[in-house]
Write a structure and sequence with these properties.
Helix content: 55-70%
Low-confidence stretches: 82-87
Mean pLDDT: 86
Shape: globular
Strand order of the largest sheet: 4-3-2-1-5-6
Largest sheet: 6 strands, parallel
Number of strands: 6
Strand content: 5-15%
Structural class: alpha/beta
């Protein structure tokens, strides 16, 4: 893990380095909070630079300072935890979906079943802390984690919210960011994969930004709404560079399955896990 983070830092990929850093189970909560702060500073500076409000020289200086701070954190952790087994780092899943109005029963079923499954199977959940899909997946996840062998929500639940908004479920890690683009970028910095359920605009934006960041997205296409637009886009342009050896026909067929019961949801989840394995195998083969 240390070597991977070092490589990203040396190549100037600070966002990726921070994303991997945050998933390192051995880091202390205070270090995690410091990483979030560095990430916020980095995103803020990038926006100012793009908008012409920060000189390139100042932008580069800030990047160098953050890189040095991250390297110091990395070496401090190496000294403190030398010899700790870092295998089996859990996958981080961002779940996004309908958050306004009445939530269809199908979406509630999917969110609760998915949350329970992720909680029971050592995943990390990233959520937006809103009502609707966010709330149902988060509460089901938290309840499953409480009953698991690793009942520490602080290591497994991350909620990203705009400033001055309280989460409906105030547990785990809650991080506040600037309203707008940073809500997506911060969430995606923490995610290995994205799962979409329904949606009324914001969910499609999650797909678009995740695709730009080359993060694989899996949708429950039977929930329609935003996921219908996602389906149309992916059929028109299949992003092979993201999904590796995942068969395109299998991807659409399995994720378009009709959802009527908990068993139907679990069948789609199992398909998603199979696709994740193929994506990771492709990445290893190409390394």
């Amino acid at each position: 893990m240390k070597e991977i983070i070092e490589d990203h830092l040396k190549e100037g990929r600070l966002k990726k380095a921070i994303s991997i850093f945050l998933k390192w189970e051995i880091i202390h909560p205070d270090v995690r909070n410091e990483l979030i702060l560095h990430s916020s500073r980095l995103n803020s500076a990038h926006r100012k630079f793009i908008d012409g409000l920060m000189r390139e020289e100042d932008y580069n200086i800030l990047n160098n300072k953050i890189t040095l701070a991250l390297l110091n954190l990395l070496y401090e952790i190496e000294r403190k935890y030398l010899g700790v087994n870092l295998q089996n780092i859990p996958k981080s899943i961002l779940v996004a979906g309908t958050g306004a109005g009445d939530i269809p029963e199908k979406e509630v079923l999917i969110a609760k079943t998915l949350g329970t499954y992720l909680g029971q199977n050592n995943y990390v959940l990233v959520s937006g802390g809103w009502q609707g899909v966010d709330y149902h997946v988060t509460t089901a996840f938290a309840e499953a984690v409480k009953q698991s062998e690793r009942p520490n929500l602080h290591k497994r639940l991350f909620q990203i919210l705009p400033k001055n908004k309280a989460p409906l479920y105030d547990k785990g890690n809650v991080f506040y960011v600037n309203e707008g683009l940073e809500e997506w970028t911060k969430s995606l910095n923490l995610a290995d994969y994205v799962v979409l359920i329904g949606g009324v605009g914001g969910t499609y934006s999650t797909y678009s930004i995740a695709t730009q960041e080359r993060i694989p997205v899996f949708s429950f296409f039977d929930t329609r709404k935003d996921t219908s637009q996602v389906l149309t886009d992916m059929i028109q342009k299949w992003p092979e560079n993201i999904y590796g050896d995942v068969p395109q026909s299998d991807y659409f067929r399995r994720l378009s399955a009709e959802i009527r019961s908990e068993e139907d949801v679990l069948s789609v989840i199992q398909a998603i896990e199979g696709f994740m394995e193929l994506i990771e195998k492709t990445a290893v083969d190409q390394a």
